[in-house]
Structures are given as structure tokens and as C-alpha cells.
Predict the structure.
Amino acid sequence: MHTILVASSKGGAGKTTLSTQLAGHFAAAGKRTVLVDADPQGSSTRWCEKRAEMDAAVLPINGHSRAFRKHLPEDAERVIIDAPAGAMADDLEPFLELADAVLVPVLPSAIDLEATVPFLNTLATVPRIKKGKLPVALVANRIKAWTQISQQAVEQLQAWPYPLVAQLRDSQGYVLLAALGRSVFDYRSEQMRSHQDDFAPLLRWLKKHS
């Protein structure tokens, strides 16, 4: 069971989008996949419910209490945890204990960059992270590569102590996919392949740390 925690102290950073897309990838690849939804909005759970009849279904589990671990199937191969917004490291303790990797989505704005720093500082105090035993990576989300703002944000993120492992483009396609209970990995169109390519370096990083 390989567990990925997707967390950010900043609401609207794209935790659920990243969580559901990763879950969709692993499920489409034939892995028995679980999505632990610890966000009060419950968006990840609704996404799972909409794809329940698919061959690449994802099992949703309520992550609002520590008892969530009792509901994890023994045969689960991939577990994605969509953490609650606004949580710091202390709030994420039960998820950090289980995690094999942590992903932190960040939007390309000064407000989001500034808000992410205190969160990363709290992560740095976690013993497993401090000792290098729990890898942490950044994901730049809603990037408009042609804009100076996004370019500057990416440069800033690349200078931070954790690796920037993906740059996900700003696309309304993710809104549609969320409504359908789908991921970019459920399709083979040229447009979706370009989105899949955005995830490629992130997936390589996860494989390296699996």
C-alpha cells in the first residue's frame, strides 16, 4: 500500500483536483485505489461516486476521524489522501503517519506563495520529513506558462528547498472532469495527452519514492 498525502494550508490551491487526477491515473492503470476524503466539502467523495460503475472505480473513504485507517482495505495498492484545507502539520499528524509521500499544490500568485511558506515550515518540523524519510514535493497548479506572473512563480518555487515536480496548466477541463467523475487518464484524445504529459514528471517522482 503506497500512500500519497495531498495537502496545503491555502484553500483553493487544487488539492482535490490533484488528488482525484492521481487517483484516476492509478485506477486506470489497474491499481486498487482508495481516496481518503478529509476535506469537509466532500468533493473527492462525490467524484468517486460518479465513477463507481467504471472498471477504473476508486473507493472513497471518509477521512474526518482517525478511525479512517480501520476502513482501508487490506488489498489497497494506492491510497490518496485529500487533506482538509487550512491544516498545518500538527493537524495532519494521522495522515503524515501513514504517508509515503507528500504533495503540496501551489497557485502562481504572491498571496498563495506567501501563504504556503508557513505551512512548509511546519512540515519541516515533522521528524520523518526532517530526517529525509518522508519526501515532500511541490506542484505548481493553474499555470499560464505564457504569463510573467506564472514564470516568476515557477522560478520562485524552484528555489525552495522542496523539488517542484510538476507544472499543471490552467484549464477549464479539470472543472468538467470533476463534474463527470473522470480524470485526464480516462481518455486518449490529443488534448488529454497534453494534460497527461503535465503529470509525467510528477508520476516519475512518485515512482522513484514508492
User: Anything to note?
Assistant: The two ends are 9 Å apart (CA to CA). Strands lie at 2-6, 33-37, 59-62, 78-82, 101-106, 136-143, 164-169. The chain has one domain: 2-202.
